[in-house]
Amino acid sequence: MAEAVANVARRINSTVEEEKDSLDLSNCKLISFPDGAFKVLRSVSDKIFVITLADNEMKVISSKFFSTFNQLRELDLQGNVLTKLPDSVGEMQHLTSISLANNSFSAFPDKLTEIATLERINLEGNNITEIPLDKLSAMPALKWLNLKSNPLDSNTRSALQSPQKCDILFTSE
What we know:
The chain is an alpha/beta fold. The protein has 5 helices and 7 strands, in the order H-E-H-E-H-E-E-E-H-E-H-E. The protein has helices at 2-17, 35-41, 63-68, 133-137, 154-161, and strands at 22-24, 50-52, 74-76, 97-99, 120-122, 144-146, 167-169. The chain has a 7-stranded parallel β-sheet with strand order 1-2-3-4-5-6-7.
């Protein structure tokens, strides 16, 4: 456990000291974003554009995360156990790519459809049965949506057969 904490601290300090525009906390056994990290990263949070929190054990991501890192362009949360996102994700004005693959979502995170800049959404390997196609088609920047390995219901699958304005990947049954 101490080794994991030291690893996280080392990565965070490196981001601050080297003024990196990205933070990689993948494979750190995190169950949530470390509260102490907000204080350490406060001085550089508006310069961080890419955060990777992949392959942890995160069950939740807080509103504070999205309000602190409001300049994010890319967020990788794949390989966690997330079931939902806070409403504040809809206020991300610069986010272009989010990966939520291999989590535990049973419903499409609707607030994503409020992000005008979002181009890529990866939701592969969740438990989603329906998607808000009308809201997705109204997203101005959306180019790519991955829904492979989700138990999409037959109505959703047949709706996806018709041409869409973006590339939608899904597993047909």
